Amino acid sequence: MSEKRGSNKYEEDKVDLRRGPWTLEEDTLLIHYIACHGEGRWNLLAKCSGLKRTGKSCRLRWLNYLKPDIKRGNLSPEEQFLILELHSKWGNRWSRIAQHLPGRTDNEIKNYWRTRVQKQARQLKIDANSAMFRDAIRCYWMPRLLEKMGSSQSMPSLTDSNATTTAGTMEQMITPHGPPQPFSNPAMHYYYPFEGCSSYDPPGSENHSPTTSSASMPLPQLPNLSEFSSGPPDNYSGASFNPFTSGHCVDNSYGLDAMDLDPVSATQLGFSVSDYTMGNNNCVDNLGDGLWNMNELWYVRKLNEWGGI
DNA sequence: AATCCTTTCAACCGCGTTAGT
DNA sequence: CACTAACGCGGTTGAAAGGAT
Fold first, then answer.
1. Which candidate among A21, A57, A151, A223 keeps its CA 20 to 30 Å from the CA of A299?
2. How does the average pLDDT of chain A come out, rounded?
3. Which nucleotide is nearest to A56 if distance is taken from CA to C1'?
4. How far is the CA of A116 from the C1' of B6 (A)?
5. Residue-level pLDDT at A77
6. Residue A119 above 70 pLDDT?
7. How far apart are CA A295 and CA A111, in angstroms?
8. A60: which nucleotide lies closest, measuring CA to C1'?
9. Which residues in 188-247 of chain A line strand C, with CB less than 7 A from it?
């Protein structure tokens, strides 16, 4: 490398190299070359194909965009669930996570995490790497996804962006003067913050395990929602409101091709979709990808302010 | 209609790892 | 074993698109 630096040949190559978005002609050239010679040896490919791109750029274009088995479209609830689950296990190991989502690239998963998941952390003013946020994901977001996964099996119309649901919302689990009530489906207790989460104890919980109570840091009595000076959102008692979707439209549809994810990957990880499918507590809302409504978010915020962790 | 702002995602970059010599 | 090139991964950037004002 260094021996080339400064040489005419090197400068010529550098000047000739194209950057930025790929054109249709370049894509065609790359596809044709790989069809004839196969993948790999990217620098050689870059030289021989006639593309004025680096081997690195060719590889990326092929793996992230042109490869035939790349799945386009929105991530299905199951895929989102897998990402959240695997990220909690492995952190930012994007390529490793991508291996469990056929047709999805590490880049796509990384983008999903940054644009959707981290955005919610920012909205909540919680560090995306904190235990608080991880628990919030497990306790609120993942159950929502599980509901959707269950619903999508029996409600193909979910793929319709105009689809509405007769099911209730999170409000149905929130008493007029208290936090969300536990999910009626036992499977949901796995994620329910007051019974299953690891990092903090539920405020106001009367029957949680003593082993998880925070003896060192007494938790405040859970106040009525109306007692907060700032108060819950104006539409607390109203219809679902989502701060992530309000003011910015989020696509409600998942796309037909996003629904046919092979469920094997979930099973392999030790959980099954059917195990967690909501029963009569099927409170799917119409929030789209923003899976928490304002009440949930506000409540998580309060947990944070109480020093719940 | 024009401008500004926000979001998304394709593409780039740097660095660590692996393979070849 | 040392060196080099290629590869792959994760972080970051910036252009495009769409929504808000």
1. A151
2. 56
3. C7
4. 13
5. 81
6. yes
7. 27
8. B11
9. 247
The nucleotide whose C1' lies nearest the CA of A66 is B10
At residue A249, the pLDDT reads: 29
Q: What is the distance between the alpha carbons of residues A85 and A98, in angstroms, rounded to a whole number?
A: 12
**Closest nucleotide to A73's CA, by C1' atom?**
B9
b (16+ CB within 10 A) / e for A268-280: eeebebeebbbee
Delineate the domains of chain A, giving CATH numbers in brackets. Answer: 8-66 (1.10.10.60), 77-305 (no CATH)
**Which residue has better confidence, A66 or A207?**
A66
A115 touches strand B (CB under 7 A): yes
DSSP string, A140-167: IIHHHHHHHHHHHHH-GGGGSTT---SS
- Rounded alpha-carbon distances, angstroms, from residue A172 to A179, A238, A284: 11, 11, 11
For A245 and C1, how far is CA from C1' in angstroms? 59
The stretches of A155-244 forming alpha helices (DSSP H) are none
Q: Which of A52-66, A129-143, A181-195 has the highest mean pLDDT?
A: A52-66
